[in-house]
Design brief:
heterodimer; A: 119 residues; mainly beta; 6-stranded mixed beta sheet; 4-stranded antiparallel beta sheet; globular; B: 117 residues; 7-stranded mixed beta sheet; 0% helix
Chain lengths: 119, 117
Amino acid sequence: AQTVTQSQPEMSVQEAETVTLSCTYDTSESDYYLFWYKQPPSRQMILVIRQEAYKQQNATENRFSVNFQKAAKSFSLKISDSQLGDAAMYFCAYRSSATSGAGSYQLTFGKGTKLSVIP
Amino acid sequence: DTAVSQTPKYLVTQMGNDKSIKCEQNLGHDTMYWYKQDSKKFLKIMFSYNNKELIINETVPNRFSPKSPDKAHLNLHINSLELGDSAVYFCASSQGSPYRSYNSPLHFGNGTRLTVT
């Protein structure tokens, strides 16, 4: 079974600065998908960014980018020019690309990193 | 328009009661899920349905019973509620089928905070 580890329970960043949240995962598969979700105090789960394992190029979405290191099984999230609205829980998640079986549908989540943004 | 909507948003009830949480998605997705988020914010899959067929059934007490009348709805019924059932329950949906794999993220509802007293 796949596992996802977020080793930083809490992080803080000064407004307008850059912060990197770490995520590692364990899998025996060669193809899979990785996601970062954000959960603000409103409780809503919001997709931030996604990455296909077969793509070497790191995904970017505006101020959010990832550093995907497949060999190291690492998938960190970088937030540039941090804003107060970025304060939230951030969850890293893994999804198998298997075309059959229960593992092909569900997301396996890490335990989350709580990000605080200091004005 | 809300893509994945679940009701109620908050649910406070006493031990031993039976309650239901409803979920509907208007995204045309094939697969729906129930996740439980505990007090430490950990999200864990409970159930998943694909086109009304149960495909994931984690080790969840039999008191929890999902029902999918059609692929746009997945309801969660809980019998004989216990204190430990207090959590936030998220419904989600995604594109996908048994025959094809999609790079499709899960779209989540806003969660139902269940408090059992």
